[in-house]
Design a protein that fits this description.
Blueprint: H1 3-13, H2 32-46, E1 59-63, H3 65-78, E2 88-92, H4 104-108, H5 117-128, H6 135-140, H7 146-152
Parallel strand pairs: 1-2
Helix pairs in contact: 2-3
Organism: Sula dactylatra
Domain Alpha/beta hydrolase fold-3: 1-132
InterPro entries: AB_hydrolase_3 (IPR013094), AB_hydrolase_fold (IPR029058), GDXG_lipolytic_enzyme (IPR050300)
């Protein structure tokens, strides 16, 4: 489903695109998808000469949940000095935070298809543990202890 955009990104950025198929939620809960993407990327980077790829041309990219996975893989690899550094990460409408579904972007776009606010929260719960029974608490923001909210308000707040 993403071959055309992968080819476009590879061509326009003169980079290599490796599309990783990963296990999906809710059948495979966290961290299965992350481990699949990390393992595939590490394998590729360790064997980069075998593929005839310039180590300086590798970009990690993903959309939606894949954007979340690309960000997580990029962060993990940033601390791995035995591997080549990634050239960049491209995150296309990534799901990056589940602390607060009441931030302005969620409020402004709550009724915009394709990913309604409630659906975004539902998918996060499916990804984490496959149980959406506490969806209302997540939408209200009562799923995060106040001390954690205070600790992260510098980065995740309406301001």
């Amino acid at each position: 489903s993403h071959e055309k955009i992968c080819r476009y990104i590879a061509r326009e950025s003169t980079s290599v695109v490796v599309s990783v198929g990963y296990r999906l939620a809710p059948e495979h809960k966290y961290p299965a998808a992350y481990e699949d993407c990390l393992n595939a990327t590490v394998h590729f980077m360790k064997n980069i000469e075998h593929y005839g790829v310039d180590p300086a041309s590798v970009i990690v990219c993903g959309d939606s949940a894949g954007g979340n996975l690309a960000a997580a893989v990029s962060q993990t690899l940033a601390g791995r000095s035995e591997l080549p550094r990634l050239r960049a990460q491209i995150l296309i409408y990534p799901g990056l935070q589940a602390l607060d579904f009441n931030l302005p972007s969620y409020q402004q776009n709550r009724g915009v298809p394709l990913l309604f606010r409630e659906r975004a929260a539902f998918y996060v719960l499916q990804y984490l543990n496959g149980d959406a029974s506490n969806l209302e608490e997540v939408l209200e923001g009562s799923h995060i202890p106040i001390d954690i909210k205070l600790n992260y308000r510098k980065w995740v707040s309406p301001d």
